[in-house]
């Protein structure tokens, strides 16, 4: 059986609001305690209320101060590690540019392979292929070396 959703609305009756506040505060302290126990973490709760002159701190002020100090130190250290949007974008552009350069090189190699095999079948070099003869020679030598290595594997 599912529970009905509680409506989140301001409690207009002062007495009922104070009772609700005390119940929720107790539940919040219990949840923080469960987090600390079950997950083995450091946690604290600071509750500011119109019912109390000072904020209520759980578990106690000294432990909460340690947790808050540790959080602030960690946050300051992580802040220097985190990137701002501009540097993130620059890094991403550099990475994508490198990928594009690699893909263009791969495409060029495939075009030269295609042109080389078309020539080997008796076709002619298309003007569209715009293949650099030195690169074509290098690719042909590379393919010959691959074939020779495969032949030596079978022997």
TrEMBL record:
GO cellular component annotations of the record: nucleus
Pfam family, any one: SRF-TF
Residues in MADS-box domain copies: 1-50
Keywords: DNA-binding, Nucleus, Transcription, Transcription regulation
Main location per the UniProt record: nucleus
GO MF entries: DNA-binding transcription factor activity, RNA polymerase II-specific; protein dimerization activity; RNA polymerase II cis-regulatory region sequence-specific DNA binding
Family matches, as InterPro entries: TF_MADSbox, TF_MADSbox_sf
Subcellular location as annotated: Nucleus
Coiled-coil features, chain-numbered ranges: none
PANTHER family on file: AGAMOUS-LIKE MADS-BOX PROTEIN AGL80 (PTHR11945:SF387), MADS BOX PROTEIN (PTHR11945)
Protein name, as recorded: MADS-box domain-containing protein
Organism of derivation: Acacia crassicarpa
Lineage of source species: Eukaryota, Viridiplantae, Streptophyta, Embryophyta, Tracheophyta
């Amino acid at each position: 059986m599912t529970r009905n959703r509680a409506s989140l609305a301001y409690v207009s009756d002062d007495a009922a609001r104070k009772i609700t506040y005390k119940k929720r505060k107790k539940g919040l302290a219990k949840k923080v305690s469960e987090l600390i126990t079950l997950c083995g973490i450091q946690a604290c709760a600071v509750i500011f209320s119109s019912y109390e002159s000072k904020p209520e701190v759980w578990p106690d002020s000294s432990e909460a101060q340690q947790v808050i100090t540790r959080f602030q130190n960690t946050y300051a250290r992580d802040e220097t590690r985190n990137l701002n949007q501009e540097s993130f974008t620059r890094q991403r552009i550099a990475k994508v540019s490198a990928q594009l350069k690699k893909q263009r090189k791969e495409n060029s190699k495939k075009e030269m392979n295609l042109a080389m095999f078309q020539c080997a079948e008796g076709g002619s070099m298309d003007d569209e292929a715009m293949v650099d003869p030195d690169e074509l020679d290098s690719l042909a030598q590379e393919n010959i070396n691959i074939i020779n290595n495969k032949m030596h594997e079978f022997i």
